């Protein structure tokens, strides 16, 4: 089944609304962003996310922290307040840093790869290998996202999905997950999942209205993903 990550969550009401849905990951942004939260805020939201999960009979979604070029000390300070399951890195972090994060903090590591929004050239498998082979054994997932010149990701725009297959092949061969972000909405996510079969999808602005998470849009997004999974099962 396709993993669904709702990113940029900032409020308790959204956390509560996610609990009945088939959401597998919830993202909290610690990098510079209009969706940025403090470690203390995220810690409280994570506790609410996990509360009652066992009684409901299914695991709570994994808590994902989004960072851009953090130091290990910065990550330690956040994790002391917010017990993250996953650290997602959106900058120019080295394989050595990725490995150190996994080893020191015992978390999963997602590494974002930026795809230029105006590029329709499909990279060769050899080019993808040259880009990513150095991350073998240091990451649990690769996240494809549309490049944003300011924040690195979170642009709310799509990239050319024809670029996905060589990254998917690399991920399969490397034994890691492939997630896709960038401009996803309830209107286009079913096509992405049906045609390109990523292991997961990641959405933020595509389930917002006037800059705030919209519960109806989140529900529609999750249902569209599930509809493809059920048809293919």
UniProtKB/TrEMBL annotation:
Keyword Translocase: no
Reactions that this protein is recorded to catalyse: N-(5-phospho-beta-D-ribosyl)anthranilate = 1-(2-carboxyphenylamino)-1-deoxy-D-ribulose 5-phosphate
Example of a GO MF term: isomerase activity
Keywords: Amino-acid biosynthesis, Aromatic amino acid biosynthesis, Isomerase, Tryptophan biosynthesis
The keyword Nucleus belongs to this UniProt entry's keyword annotation: no
Pathway: Amino-acid biosynthesis; L-tryptophan biosynthesis; L-tryptophan from chorismate: step 3/5
Pfam families listed in its UniProt record: PRAI (PF00697)
Record domain N-(5'phosphoribosyl) anthranilate isomerase (PRAI): where: 4-223
Enzyme Commission number(s) from the entry: 5.3.1.24
Similarity section: Belongs to the TrpF family.
Protein name: N-(5'-phosphoribosyl)anthranilate isomerase
Species for this entry: Gordoniibacillus kamchatkensis
Gene that this polypeptide is encoded by: trpF
């Amino acid at each position: 089944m396709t993993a669904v990550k709702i990113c940029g969550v900032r409020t308790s009401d959204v956390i509560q609304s996610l609990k009945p849905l088939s959401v597998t990951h919830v993202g909290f942004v610690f990098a510079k962003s209009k969706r940025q939260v403090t470690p203390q805020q995220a810690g409280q939201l994570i506790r609410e996310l996990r509360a009652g999960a066992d009684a409901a009979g299914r695991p709570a979604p994994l808590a994902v922290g989004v960072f851009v070029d953090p130091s290990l000390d910065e990550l330690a300070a956040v994790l002391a307040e917010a017990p993250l399951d996953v650290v997602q890195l959106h900058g120019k972090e080295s394989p050595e840093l990725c490995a150190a994060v996994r080893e020191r903090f015992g978390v999963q590591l997602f590494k974002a790869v930026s795809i230029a929004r105006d590029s329709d050239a499909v990279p060769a498998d050899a080019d993808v290998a040259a880009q990513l082979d150095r991350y073998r054994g240091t990451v649990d997932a690769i996240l494809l996202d549309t490049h944003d010149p300011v924040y690195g990701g979170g642009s709310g725009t799509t990239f050319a999905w024809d670029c996905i297959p060589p990254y998917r092949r690399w991920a399969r061969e490397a034994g890691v997950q492939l997630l896709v972000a960038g401009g996803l909405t309830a209107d286009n996510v079913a096509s992405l999942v049906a045609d390109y079969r990523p292991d997961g999808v990641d959405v933020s602005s595509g389930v917002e209205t006037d800059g705030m998470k919209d519960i109806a849009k989140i529900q529609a997004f999750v249902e569209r993903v599930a509809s493809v999974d059920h048809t293919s099962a």
